[in-house]
Amino acid sequence: MSRIQKLAIGSIFVGALVLALKYAAYHLTGSIALYSDALESIINVVTAIAAFMAVRVSAAPADANHPYGHHKVEYFSAVLEGVLIIVAALMILREAYFGLLSPRMLDAPAFGLAVNAAATVVNGFWSWVLIRQGRRLRSPAVTADGRHLLTDVLTSAGVLVGLVLVPGTGWAWLDPILAALVAVNILWSGWGLMKESIGGLMDEALPEATLARVREIISVNAEGAIEAHDLRTRHAGKMTFIDFHLVVPGGMSVTDAHDICDRLERALKGEIEDALITIHVEPDDKAKHAGIVVL
Fold first, then answer.
1. Domain-terminating residue out of 172, 201, 230
2. pLDDT score, position 90
């Protein structure tokens, strides 16, 4: 089992633990804000299961029907997570509305808030693990899961700070107001997540800084060629696809041209892990006198 799959399984168990703690906190206090926190944890468990299924499918080798692999399935998982986040936020807004119409004081606030704080600490640690490892392993599903949990941590912290004021001030209306603010923050997080994932499905190019580095590597390591042009890049899960045209002298042998391509592939893969590189070799009469100049 891969490291990514182990992280995805870990998210399911951590999500279930946090859900149990947050529901207990809601049950102890009757707080709508803590109910919203618990509801988001249900979404965390569902999306963790979806992420695990996605990384399992994405790890499958290429086949006749999917010659480029199954890496993009992770983006579908991230889009699903964004949709579920938005649905949860709308449900929280509904509860906050009714809570604002009939505000009530909290039951056993100290113990309930302590239980919720423990759940927040667990979530905070696990979100840090997922974001760090997801970026290192270049897994959109794991990174998205970590970012979602980080949003949960921040909103939980805000809710806890706000609810501490309710018993002392007697402001029962503060509870549904906090729940509504949690919902708005969750909506923003869900929209950002969906936007980023859809970008991956639409084959967005590499960031400009990475593209500049790719051009530099090609320029420095293509000795013997004339130029490179029509560079195209895209992401699909942890894979990075790079293709370009390489112009060589018309009289160059196939073996020599192939050696240049091998050198370029080694250099690019040394910089970008899990890169799939396609180089189209052309004779000098195809030069466009534009693109990447060979040093």
1. 201
2. 80
* Beta strands per DSSP E along the chain: 227-236, 239-248, 275-283, 292-293
Q: Please state the domain count of the chain.
A: 2
The C-alpha atoms of residue 150 and residue 193 are separated, in whole angstroms, by: 12
Q: Are 285 and 250 in contact (CB under 8 A)?
A: yes
Give the closest residue to 233 by CA, choosing from 292, 145, 295: 292
Same domain, 153 and 272: no
Same domain, 35 and 144: yes
108's tokens: 């056993």
The 10s digit of each residue's pLDDT in 171-180 is 777 777 777 7
Q: Mark whether 180 and 51 lie in a shared domain.
A: yes
Residue 8 — pLDDT band, cuts 50, 70, 90?
confident
Residue 81: give the domain boundaries: 3-201
pLDDT at 43 > cutoff 80: no
Contact 279, 265 (CB under 8 A): yes
User: Are 136 and 112 found together in one domain?
Assistant: yes
Is the pLDDT at 104 greater than 70? The verdict is no
Give the predicted TM-score (pTM) of the model.
0.58
Contact (CB, 8 A) for 48 and 13: no
Buried b or exposed e, range 40-53, using 16+ CB within 10 angstroms? bbbbbbbbbbbbbe
Mean pLDDT, residues 214-241 taken together: 89
d(CA 2, CA 246): 36
Q: Tell whether 164 and 78 lie within a shared domain.
A: yes
Q: Are 266 and 198 in contact (CB under 8 A)?
A: no
Q: Is 88 exposed, middle or buried (0-12, 13-18, 19+ CB in 10 A)?
A: buried
The domain that holds 180 is classified in CATH as: 1.20.1510.10
